[in-house]
Amino acid sequence: MNQTKIITAASELGRNVLEHGLGGDVHIERVQRQEKIGLRMTFTDSGPGIENVNLALTDGYTSKNGLGLGLTGSKRLMDEFELTSIPGQGTTVSVTKWK
Amino acid sequence: MDRIPILKLGDKLLVTIQVDFHDRVALALQEDLTEKILSAGAKGVLIDISALEMVDSFMGRVLGNIAKASRLLDCETVLVGMQPAIAITITELGIALQGIHTALNAEGGMALLERLIKAKSNRGRTANASKIAGRPPNLQRG
Fold this sequence. Notes:
The structure holds 2 protein chains of 2 kinds. Chain A is α+β, with helices and mostly antiparallel strands. Chain A has one domain (about 1-100): Histidine kinase-like ATPase, C-terminal domain (Heat Shock Protein 90), CATH 3.30.565. Helices cover about 30% and strands about 35% of the residues of chain A. Chain A contains 3 helices and 4 strands. Chain A has a 4-stranded antiparallel sheet with strand order 1-2-4-3, covered by helices on one side. In chain A, a hairpin with a 3-residue loop joins strand 3 (about 80-85) and strand 4 (about 90-100). In chain A, helix 1 (about 1-20) runs antiparallel to helix 3. The N and C termini of chain A lie close together (about 10 Å). By secondary structure, chain B is of the alpha/beta class. Chain B has helices at about 25-40, 55-70, 85-95, 105-135; strands at about 5-10, 10-15, 45-50, 75-80, 100-105. The N and C termini of chain B lie far apart (about 70 Å). In chain B, about 30% of the residues are buried. Classes of the chains: A alpha+beta, B alpha/beta.
């Protein structure tokens, strides 16, 4: 179950990097917090960035002709979600799933 | 480029997605299928996704669009074989896939298509019959 959720989130966020960020990098790592182990994926692009992060995290909001579920959907599929974006410089989205 | 084969079985089309269903393959299927519905005069489409390990919002949108476009072409679509993990994942993701018929397996899907097609032709017949027989009952001039 977790595997399906993780690859789906990876697909959504990877698509964002390609379509909005004009390409970028993903860093996948194993993380540990006390007894828990997990998987963290960090997607980084140096695209135009997101002007209004709150708006981008609204369900159904889309700047292109998608369903607007990429960011909000991945947030729901993963345990932790962190988004930082600087307009004109790029966007980083980091998601973690604990085992 | 990989293309997904579309098999014709009577008045139905059968699509089994076994290759990696990436964006271009998905869009090609949408195009091929709508053309095939017309050329084959198909009344139903069965899409088997039992080999798919993942459905993201893009694929969900394409599958939904296929169903909508088919309906506009007087053809019903049934999606079969969705794995439980995918059902939960796409629900959490927020893809509703509303208006798309589903069945657990290909056999159930074929039976459902049969019923949908029959129900539609019956409805069509009654609608036509009442149109012929029916005069507006209360059309009085004042």
